[in-house]
Design a protein that fits this description.
The complex is a heterotrimer of chains A (about 220), B (about 300) and C (about 130). Chain B is of the alpha/beta class and about 300 residues long. Chain B contains nine helices and 15 strands. In chain B, the strands form three sheets. In chain B, strands 7-8-9-4-10-11 form a six-stranded mixed sheet, with helices on both faces. In chain B, a hairpin with a 5-residue loop joins strand 1 and strand 2. With about 130 residues, chain C is mostly helical. In chain C, helix 1 crosses helix 3, helix 1 packs across helix 4 and helix 2 packs across helix 3. The longest helix of chain C has 26 residues. The chains are: A mainly alpha (about 220), B alpha/beta (about 300), C mainly alpha (about 130).
Chain lengths: ~220, ~300, ~130
């Protein structure tokens, strides 16, 4: 059953997987190639540009996660899940098959990034301390992918009612944030929450932190 | 008599205006059960309840001995379904659709699948989304039949199909039933088609089950009588139920009755009254008159 | 042979099938040893309930026209001449009964009917 689901998901998304893998492979190469020349002349500029490139990694991870999550659920959503509900599989197992299938589709993307990172740093003569950098980058990317896919999948597999509830909760939170901000301008609920989530041990920690190599 | 489908006291409120009320269905195993009713009477809602897609407010459902929704996957493993709207993944080809479906059912008839593909004239490489209405219906039936189910639940499977496709669909269905002895619940508007092969009939109207009995009893008991000089007849102890009475043609009236038995001709041995004719009502007439009588008795 | 089965008729379908088979045997269209179409074939081709077909074949077996051989099918038996003659008699009487019922509906008298029969048997309407 897992194979059958994987097969139909592959048919639906293979072109997306290829496109994302190409992008994932290219990103490290492009970011390193473009910046290294600048580094020789202007260090501060180099460092800022470096940070900028760092932003693209979680962005790519987010885009990939979302695209694949949408792609694997598209057909079921269009049919209002009628077919899935006719199959003799408990709902939770069906969802698990879809999830595992989606993860498998993202493996090539993570591997492509790893390959790209290795290729990008191969011609650079990295000092011994940071020789693991491409692998660390790939690992961080894979972890981020996993995390963001989890969110995107949950969103796409949820019924419209659940999504509606989630949106309402978010809206409520934003309303509270604005109210608090008006009453006490120094208290920024949103920023505090984002920071808490984004720094270890918060769930979004892998997205933050240092993506790019600093100080060769 | 084992029951393939049984509901007891099923209640479901779909909206403020419409609810399924106290529905107690009993479909015997091996029956070809025609599920009739006008548009909007709740047939599709009932089928959705049977298949666990909707949760009832009250009542129990049992499919092939499995309680719904507790043992839903076990019941679905033995049930072939054609839902009211095409459910296939449109981007898969015919062959891919087959391969996907068969992965979920342990008993799959590969030989018959190949035969049906040929007799239905479906090309394996065609995209499911590109099939015509008739081809889609045939593919859905093929998938439902080749999984070798013990129960088939078909929601308007012949809706909008031309007569040729209808024949092909019914032929394949009845061939399967002959070989396997499966139970079939077909909901349809096409009363004439159902009349040919159904041996049980359940009629729904406005969320309630109006009648449920063997086809022979339903047909046999519904008659059109032509009676003359019955203007002043006292109907209080009539052994049959009069569904309609048409007095427009002078002294000879046409009555539609239910629950007729041959010996009831004796009841007409009264002064001046003459029973001129007892004719069968076909299924469609019987169905229409039954609903009319049911609705007037309701108000 | 079974193309004009009428589910709306007061005659049950199984009886309609049985009558047709008996007629075919009486006229010699079906000979002893011929295999009747299988339940599956008949049910599928004419979109009727397989139980109806089975019922028809069983009735035919009881009356001695066919024999059901497990796994092989339903075969026509050699029917003695008297049985065939009796069957033709039954068919003829059935036809006449239908005609009489129709005649009553039109309010025809016995004499009018007899005249019409004689007329038609003598060569038909000119």
């Amino acid at each position: 059953m897992q194979r059958a689901i994987l097969r139909i998901q592959w048919k639906a998304c293979w072109h997306l997987v290829i496109a994302l893998s190409v992008a994932a492979f290219a990103l490290p190469i492009v970011s390193v190639r473009l910046d290294w020349t600048a580094g020789r002349t202007n260090l501060p500029l180099f460092l800022t540009e470096l940070q900028l490139w760092g932003f693209f990694y979680p962005l790519l991870a987010g885009v990939a996660a979302l695209i694949i999550a949408v792609g694997i659920w598209m057909s079921d959503r269009r049919g209002q899940h009628v077919y899935a509900l006719l199959l003799p599989v408990p709902r939770w197992r069906y969802i698990l098959y879809r999830y595992a299938g989606g993860l498998l589709l993202l493996v090539p993307v993570a591997l492509a990034l790893w390959a790209g990172a290795v290729v990008a740093t191969s011609g650079l003569g990295l000092p011994p301390g940071i020789r693991v950098y491409p692998h660390a980058l790939a690992a961080k990317f894979a972890l981020t992918l996993l995390l963001l896919f989890g969110f995107a999948f949950a969103l796409m597999s949820a019924s419209s009612r659940t999504v509606g509830i989630a949106i309402r909760i978010l809206g409520l939170f934003l309303a509270v944030h604005v109210a608090v901000l008006l009453l006490s301008p120094s208290t920024n609920l949103l920023w505090t929450t984002v920071k808490a989530l984004g720094t270890s041990p918060g769930p979004l920690a892998p997205l933050g932190g240092r993506w790019m190599l600093i100080d060769a | 008599m084992t029951l393939a489908i049984q509901t007891q006291g099923l209640q479901y409120r779909a909206s403020r205006e419409f609810a399924i009320e106290n529905l107690s269905l009993a479909v015997p195993a091996g029956a070809l059960y025609g599920f009739l009713g006008p548009n909007g009477c709740g047939k599709t809602t009932t089928i959705r309840l049977l298949l666990g897609r909707l949760r009832p407010d009250a009542g129990t459902i049992t499919l092939l001995g499995h309680a719904i929704p507790e043992a839903l996957p076990a019941a679905l493993a033995r049930t072939g379904v054609i839902p009211d709207r095409p459910h296939l993944h449109r981007y898969l080809t015919v062959q891919e659709s087959l391969d996907f479906h068969r992965a979920f059912f342990t008993e799959w008839d590969t030989v018959w699948a190949t035969e049906l593909l040929a007799s239905f004239r479906l090309r394996p490489g065609q995209k499911a989304g590109g099939l015509s209405k008739g081809e889609t219906a045939k593919l859905m039936l093929l998938l439902a039949l080749c999984q070798k189910p013990d129960l088939l639940i078909l929601d308007e499977p012949m809706d909008g199909l031309d007569p040729v496709v209808r024949r092909d669909v019914l032929a394949a269905l009845l061939e399967y039933v002959s070989a396997r002895g499966a139970t079939v619940l077909v909901s349809s508007h096409l009363v004439h088609e159902l009349e040919r092969f159904c041996d049980w009939i359940g009629v729904m109207d406005r969320g309630r089950l109006v009648v449920e009995l063997p086809m022979s009893e339903f047909r046999g008991g519904n008659k059109r009588l032509r009676v003359s000089s019955a203007q002043s007849l006292d109907m209080t102890n009539a052994p049959f139920k009069v569904m309609a009475r048409d007095r427009s043609a002078g002294t000879v009236e046409t009555w539609m009755v239910r629950g007729w038995l041959p010996e009831m001709t004796n009841w007409f041995q009264r002064d001046g009254v003459m029973l001129r004719e007892v004719a069968d009502l076909d299924l469609e007439d019987g169905f229409v008159e039954l609903l009319r009588a049911f609705r007037t008795s309701d108000t | 042979m079974f193309a004009d089965l009428d589910p709306k008729s007061p005659i049950p379908l199984y009886e309609q099938i049985a009558v047709r088979v008996k007629a075919a045997v009486s006229t010699g269209e079906f000979r002893a040893g011929d295999l009747l179409p299988s339940v599956r074939e008949l049910a599928g081709r004419h979109r009727i309930n397989p139980a109806t077909v089975t019922q028809a074949y069983r009735a035919l077996e009881v009356e001695g026209f066919v024999e059901l051989r497990q796994g092989a099918g339903t075969f026509v038996k050699s029917v003695p001449t008297e049985t065939r003659a009796r069957e033709r008699g039954t068919q003829a009487r059935r036809l006449v009964r239908d005609m009489l019922a129709n005649a009553a509906r039109y309010g025809l008298s016995r004499q009018e009917l007899r005249d019409a029969i004689r007329h038609e048997l003598d060569g038909g309407t000119r």
